[in-house]
Amino acid sequence: MGLLTDFRLAVLERNLGVYGVHVYQSGKTLGEHRFRSDDRENLYSGSKTFASVGVGIAEGEGRFRLSDYVLDFFPELQHMAYPGSEKITVQHLLQMSSGHMFEDFDRYKSGDLAKLFFGMEMKAEAGSSFYYENLCTYMLGRVVEKVSGQTMLDYLKPRLFDMLEIGNPQWNSCPYEHTFCASGLYLTTEEFSRIGIMLLQNGVYKGRQIVSADYVNRMHSEWVDTSSHEDEEGRGGYGYQVWKCTPPNTYRADGMYGQFCVVLDDYDAVITATSHNEVGAKEILRAMWSQILPQLS
Question: Angle at the Cα of 137 (from 133 to 139), degrees rounded to 5?
Answer without folding.
Answer: 105
